[in-house]
Design brief:
The chain is α/β, with parallel strands linked by helices. The protein contains 12 helices and 14 strands. The relative contact order is 0.16.
Length: 346
């Protein structure tokens, strides 16, 4: 899934459930300058369909967006939705890097859910295992080959040169967490159909989870429990959110069980992390996507976990003209993955 050496200009492409986003940055490591960003909405049914006809339509939408954005390059780093990727942290015997890679492939059967021969496996050495000093800790990701090949065909078919595939969960911290942060941070990115949780420490993810509850589930709860249509439910959720005192708390009551189910999953992930790394306290929660745009949800999390909760800013490490600040901040919560991809080291 790595980057080809010698490729300097590329853009990040996030093919989401409800929209396609792309970001091109320029500059070396550290702060990069915004060149272009673009977005186009997409029908969720089409985005999630594996049918050839729907995939071709998605390809055409991406081709049109790339053409309209007038990007300077056809090289692209592409996000992989967390629902399609398995990511885990494993402890392995301490071996030289070349042998470690071989050992990992031998053990892959017991570490990943899909057959190793049908999977693209990527790994990174994190350091000493916190549980066993004779072992090292490795971050492992796997994606079915069939999915990678389908995406590759789609993008090469419209004249793009894919230089990297990267799981969304690994790109998020790059955009959301300030460089040089050593204390553990939890990033929560609520999408339409699922929510990504990533706990990072140093500059590496230590826990990556995809929870099958997204903003759609919250809107559906409002719709069913208040007996209103989808459009009105969306307006209510994004206007009143988890506020107990707006509309006599009716919206809060309608959605609180769904919100609490998501919070329970967050709690499980935090506890799992703390059990593995007892000496490393989680410092803060950074929210983006629907988690930052549903009113009072960040506050709800802060109260539940007695922790600082911060609204993420996807452009925090990107420089741009001062007069574009309001425009960019307005869309920040939708661009975390695309920016993270564009910020990959060359």
């Amino acid at each position: 899934m790595g980057l080809l050496s010698g490729v300097s200009a590329f853009f990040g492409l996030d093919i989401g459930t409800t929209g396609i986003r792309l970001v091109e940055l320029r500059g070396s490591d550290g702060t990069k300058t915004l060149v272009k960003y673009a977005y186009v909405p997409i029908d969720p049914k089409m985005a999630q369909s594996d049918s050839k006809a729907d995939q071709q339509k998605v390809g055409q939408i991406i081709a049109d967006l790339v053409s309209q954005a007038k990007l300077s390059t056809r090289n692209v780093a592409v996000g992989l939705p967390s629902s399609r990727v398995f990511t885990t942290v494993a402890d392995l015997d301490r071996l030289p890097p070349a042998e470690l890679g071989k050992a990992l492939l031998y053990q892959a059967d017991s570490l990943i859910p899909t057959p190793p021969l049908e999977s693209k496996i990527d790994w990174a050495l994190l350091g000493d295992s916190p549980k066993d000093r004779t072992k090292v800790e490795v971050l492992l990701s796997s994606v079915p080959n069939s999915y990678i090949e389908q995406r590759l065909d789609l993008l090469e078919g419209i004249g793009l040169n894919v230089i990297a595939f990267e799981p969304d969960g690994l790109t998020l911290p790059r955009a959301m967490v300030p460089p040089g942060t050593t204390m553990p941070q939890l990033v929560i990115d609520m999408g339409t159909v699922s929510t990504d949780l990533v706990i990072t420490m140093g500059d590496a993810p230590r826990l990556v989870r995809s929870i099958p509850t997204g903003s759609d589930a919250v809107v559906r709860a409002a719709q069913q429990n208040l007996g209103i249509d989808d459009k009105q439910a969306q307006q209510f959720v994004y206007k009143f959110g988890v506020s107990r005192d707006k509309l006599e708390g009716q919206v809060f009551q309608a959605i609180v069980n769904t919100v609490d189910a998501l919070v329970a999953d967050v709690d499980k992930s935090i506890k799992f992390f703390q059990a593995r790394y007892p000496n490393n306290q989680l410092e803060r929660i950074i929210v983006t996507g629907g988690a930052s745009s549903i009113p009072e949800f960040p506050l709800y999390l802060a109260n539940k976990f007695s922790m600082n909760v911060e609204i993420g800013n996807a452009w925090r490490n990107v420089s741009f003209a001062a007069d574009r600040q309001n425009e960019l901040l307005a869309v920040s919560n939708q661009f975390s993955v695309a920016v993270g991809l564009a910020e990959r080291s060359e």
